[in-house]
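Hey there, shall we discuss this one?
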Amino acid sequence: MTRLQEAAYSAQFAAGLPVSELAHVLLAGDEGVIHVRQCAAYIEAIRTTAWFTGAFAAHAGPVTVVGGRGVSRADAGEWWVKIGTSDRSDVGRCEVACLHELAHLVTSDRGPGGDLREPVDGKASSKGHHHAWRVNFGLIVRMTLGKPAARRLRHEFTAWGLPTCK
């Protein structure tokens, strides 16, 4: 994990994001690991909101959501998200993982001219947590969890050396 990638995760967790009512409804259940079907229902509920389809019109299709061991990840090319067991232990962590991975789906690692936004590897890489991703993640958090949560997230990104303003 690069220093910048670690900073992105640290900032996200330091923000202490609240849990939405939608997550309490769709991600709650029995004690133990949240089922991947619940994650899929949550992601679909967010993806089909008017604000999401308006902001990310090019990303209108359904998302394939899978589970598995370990951490979560997304593949924008294949339009799928894995919500790993380590992120499905409680509602709050699962919700943040779902929103985090949605931001990866809608944020290209290439800029408008087709150039990479950052190096793929090495110290200068945040492994996809570049400026454009942070801006989109902030928007998704604001629309899902509210403006105060988005402000805290933006503040933490800045404190960890990953600003969302240019």
Summary: The two ends are 25 Å apart (CA to CA). The mean pLDDT is 93. The first strand starts at residue 64 and ends at 66. Strands lie at 64-66, 73-75, 80-82.
